[in-house]
Design goal:
The chain is an alpha+beta fold and about 450 residues long. The chain is about 45% helix and about 20% strand. A hairpin with a 6-residue loop joins strand 12 and strand 13. It starts with 12 loop residues before the first helix and ends in a 10-residue tail after the last strand.
Length: about 450
C-alpha cells in the first residue's frame, strides 16, 4: 500500500470500533470482539491517487474504509474498467484474503481516505467468532463477486466486439485496398487501349498451358520482355496466355494494344477477386452473429467453425497451421448459434495464445454416440496445462495471464454456454498440447424445434 501519511491524526480505538459497529459486516460483534479486531488491525491514511490494493498482488489482508472515497478498477488490455466507487463502511480485498490468492482488482483513493487494515490472521480469528459473522462475510464476498462478474461479462461482450472489429478492419482493408488499386490501374489501362489502333479482328492468345511454377512464369515474362515489352505489360500478357513465340507471329504495332487488353482483363480479375473476398467476409460476419434470425436455429457447427476462422484470420497468418477434420455426415443441431460462435472464438483465441502464434490448430467435428448430437474438438500444440491449473480453468476470474491480459471469464462463459445447451466440455492436456472437447446434444433442454 502506498501513500500513507504518518502525520495524520488517526481515529481512536473507540471511534474505530463505533465505525465498525455501524457496518452490516461487523455489527454482530460484541464490544470485546470489536476491540480485539481493532487491536489486531492497523489504521492507514491514503492521499488522493494512492493505491490501497494493486491487481495481481498477493493478498495478505482485507480493508475496511473508515473515511473517504475509493475507486475499484480492473485492468483489461490497456484500459481500466471501473467496477465501483466505495465509501465508509465498505469492505475491500476480502475475496482474495479469504481465498489466500492474488488480488482480483485494484483500489485507489479518490479523496483523502482512512482505512483499517486487518491481517489475514485476524480474519481467521474473526470467522471463528461465530456463524453470524462468517455468514456476513460470505454474503459480502458473494455480492462483490456477482457485481464484478456482471460488469466483466459486459466487458467481455465489448471485448468480443473489439476483437471482431479488429479482425474485420484488418481483413477488409486488404481487399478494399486491392480493389482501389485495381480500379486506378484499370482506368489507366482502358485509357491507353482507347488511343491505340485496334486490330480487326482482335487476335486471341493461343491455347497455352499456364505456367506450372513461379519460375516458369518468370522465364516466360523475361522472354516476352525481349520483344521490347515493359515488365508490367509482359506479366499481363503471360497471364492472358501469350508466349514470346505466339507474340512474334503478330504485327509489331499490335503488341501495345494486346498488352493493354491483357492488362484490362487481369485487373478485372483482381477486382472481382477483391470484391468476392469482401462479400465472403461480410457473409461470414452475418452468419457468425446470426443477424436477423431467431435465437435458436438449426445449425451446422462446421459453418460456425469456418466463420470463426474467417473472423480470426488476421491472427492465424503468421505461423499457425490450421487442420480441419470435419465429418461430411455431421448432423445439424438446434442451438443458440451466436453463443456457440463465441465459444469457438474463445477457444481458438486461447489456442493461438497458448502456442504464442506458432503451431498447429486442429478443428474436429463428428457425430456423437447417439448420431444426433455432435462432438467438436479444438486442439493446439502449445506447452499444455498443468493438472493444478486444469482443475480451475472454468472458475470465474481465474486466469494464468498477467494482470490486464485477461478477465478470467472467457472459459467460464464458455462453460456456461455449453451447459445451457445441455452439453459438456472436457479438457485433455499434455506436454504436446491441449484439446478441448465439446459435446452438444440435438437441441438445448426444454427447447421446442424452431
Amino acid at each position: 500500500m502506498t501513500g500513507a501519511d504518518a502525520t495524520h491524526q488517526h481515529l481512536g480505538p473507540e471511534a474505530v470500533a463505533d465505525r465498525l459497529r455501524d457496518t452490516p459486516l461487523f455489527g454482530g460483534l460484541d464490544d470485546e470482539q470489536l476491540q480485539r479486531l481493532v487491536a489486531m488491525g492497523e489504521i492507514c491514511d491514503l492521499e488522493p491517487g494512492a493505491f490501497l490494493i494493486r491487481e495481481g498482488d498477493e493478498a495478505d489482508a482485507l480493508y475496511v474504509v473508515l473515511d473517504g472515497e475509493l475507486d475499484v478498477t480492473k485492468r483489461s488490455d490497456r484500459s481500466d474498467i471501473p467496477l465501483a466507487r466505495v465509501g465508509p463502511g465498505s469492505l475491500q480485498g476480502e475475496i482474495a484474503a479469504l481465498e489466500g490468492g492474488r488480488r482480483l482488482a485494484s483500489v485507489h483513493a479518490v479523496t483523502p481516505a482512512e482505512v483499517l487494515r486487518i491481517p489475514v490472521a485476524a480474519v481467521r480469528e474473526l470467522l471463528s467468532a461465530g456463524p453470524d459473522v462468517a455468514l456476513a462475510v460470505i454474503r459480502t464476498a458473494v455480492a462483490r463477486l456477482r457485481s464484478i462478474e456482471l460488469t466483466l461479462r459486459e466487458r467481455e461482450k465489448l471485448a468480443g466486439l473489439g476483437t471482431l472489429a479488429a479482425g474485420l478492419a484488418h481483413e477488409l482493408n486488404n481487399p478494399a485496398a486491392a480493389a482501389m488499386r485495381a480500379i486506378g490501374s484499370l482506368r489507366e489501362a482502358v485509357g491507353t487501349a482507347e488511343h491505340l489502333p485496334r486490330p480487326a479482328p482482335p487476335p486471341r492468345p493461343p491455347e497455352t498451358a499456364p505456367p506450372a511454377s513461379g519460375l516458369e512464369r518468370s522465364d516466360r515474362i523475361e522472354e516476352v520482355m525481349r520483344l521490347g515489352v515493359e515488365a508490367e505489360a509482359a506479366s499481363a500478357l503471360v497471364a492472358a496466355g501469350w508466349t514470346a513465340a505466339s507474340l512474334s507471329e503478330q504485327p509489331r504495332d499490335v503488341l501495345p494494344w494486346l498488352a493493354a487488353d491483357a492488362s484490362v482483363h487481369v485487373l478485372l480479375g483482381e477486382l472481382a477477386m477483391a470484391i468476392g473476398r469482401i462479400s465472403e467476409i461480410v457473409g461470414a460476419v452475418k452468419g457468425y452473429a446470426y443477424l436477423d434470425q431467431a435465437p435458436v436455429q438449426r445449425i451446422d457447427v462446421r459453418t460456425g467453425l469456418e466463420q470463426t476462422l474467417v473472423i480470426l484470420r488476421h491472427r492465424l497468418r503468421d505461423g499457425v497451421e490450421v487442420r480441419r477434420e470435419l465429418d461430411d455426415d455431421l448432423p445439424e443441431i438446434e442451438a443458440y448459434g451466436s453463443e456457440l460462435n463465441q465459444v469457438w472464438t474463445n477457444l481458438v483465441d486461447n489456442a493461438i495464445d497458448a502456442m504464442e502464434g506458432r503451431g498447429v490448430l486442429t478443428l474436429r467435428a463428428s457425430p456423437d454416440r447417439t448420431g444426433e448430437g455432435v462432438v467438436v474438438e479444438i486442439c493446439d500444440t502449445g506447452p499444455g496445462v498443468p493438472d493444478d491449473i486444469r482443475q480451475r480453468l472454468f472458475e470465474p476470474f481465474y486466469t494464468t495471464k498477467p494482470p490486464g491480459k485477461g478477465t478470467g471469464l472467457g472459459l467460464h462463459i464458455t462453460h456456461n454456454v455449453i451447459s445451457r445447451h445441455g452439453g459438456r466440455i472436457d479438457v485433455e492436456s499434455s506436454a504436446e498440447g491441449t484439446c478441448f472437447r465439446i459435446t452438444l446434444p440435438r437441441k438445448p433442454p426444454g427447447e421446442d424445434a424452431p
